[in-house]
Amino acid sequence: TLLETRLDNVVYRMGFAASRVEARQLIGHGHFTVNGKKVDIASYIVRVGDVVAVNDNSRQSNKFAE
Asked: What pTM, to 2 d.p., does this model score?
């Protein structure tokens, strides 16, 4: 269960990345926020009730346009 709560796995499961490696790269580049704060650590543990979102500046990117 600990592995399923990592931010890179959550981003992958949400469909923002085609693989976990891509999810790690997107997180490392600062494309995601957790509860409104930028998180660039792929091993960040997401808890129940946390809001994971695409960073406002990254929403115009072709990757997240869909």
From this structure: 0.88
